[in-house]
Amino acid sequence: MHIVDSAKRLVKYSWLLQVLVERDLKIRYRRSFLGYLWSVLNPLLMMIILTIVFSNMFRFDIPQYPVYLLAGQLIFGFYSEATSMAMGSILGGAALIKKVYLPKYIFPLSRVISSFTSMLLSMIALFIVIIATDVTFSITIILLPFILVQVLVFCIGMGLLLSVLVVFFRDVQYLYSIFLTAFNYLTPIFLPGKFIARVAQRTAGL
After folding, report:
1. CA dist., res. 46 & res. 178, Å (int)
2. pLDDT of amino acid 155
3. Mean pLDDT of 37-58
4. Helices (H), 52-143
């Protein structure tokens, strides 16, 4: 019954969710000449720089490294941004929450959805790189929407959890930023998984 009631409230306040998402997107690109085009340009430019650094200097033998790098960047970037924004959303909306009754989960949910929308725009950059590097599309590409939905649901869950924790424990936001930095380099986004595993084994041996 609690889930049903929450779903009904979400439908009732769907207009507010839409307003908050639109506000976040407008604020993101406010006073920007290129506007939403940065969602495509930014990952492309970062991919070019990181590809030069990691593929040429470190020379890791990863097939289609630009595609590998950009795909990992987009997913991790979405997770990092969505959960970080959601974490402070309830505190940020405290003034409004105190004045009128609103489902508090609307605020972290709106932040995650706005980040997800931005990531979907950035996916254009991924397909541009796939076409430019002449990568052959596989039938498994049909699983992409399923994977994105899974990541979205996971980010919503993490965002809700963090947004509650930070209300009671403000130190969570500082600890979480450290966790994201470590997590970024402990996952095979820039470097191959085998390399990270070898480093972990050597570190454990010490």
Report:
1. 22
2. 93
3. 67
4. 65-87, 89-92, 94-99, 106-132
Which two structure tokens, joined as six digits, stand for 173? 């936001």
Please tell me the pTM assigned to this model.
0.79
Spatial contact of 36 and 126, defined as CB atoms under 8 Å apart: no
- Report how far residue 182's alpha carbon sits from residue 176's, in angstroms, rounded to the nearest whole number: 10
- Distance (Å, whole) CA 108 – CA 83: 8
Encode pLDDT of 133-183 as tens digits.
787 878 888 888 899 999 999 999 999 999 989 888 888 888 888 888 888
Residues in CB range of 72: below 8 A, 6 or more apart:
187, 188, 189, 190
- CA 70 – CA 61 distance, rounded (Å): 16
User: Could you read off the pLDDT of 1-15 as tens digits, one per residue?
Assistant: 456 666 677 677 677
8 A C-beta contact, residue 64 and residue 91: no
Q: How many angstroms separate the Cα of 133 from the Cα of each of 28, 71, 81, 189?
A: 30, 14, 28, 19
Provide the percentage of residues in the chain whose pLDDT is more than 70: 73
Q: In which region does residue 117 sit, left (phi positive, over 0), alpha (psi from -120 to 50) or beta (all else)?
A: alpha
Question: What SS3 class is residue 22?
Answer: helix
The Cα–Cα gap between 192 and 138 comes to 21
* Ramachandran category for residue 138: left, alpha or beta (phi over 0 → left; psi -120 to 50 → alpha): beta
How far apart are alpha carbons 17 and 185 in whole angstroms? 34
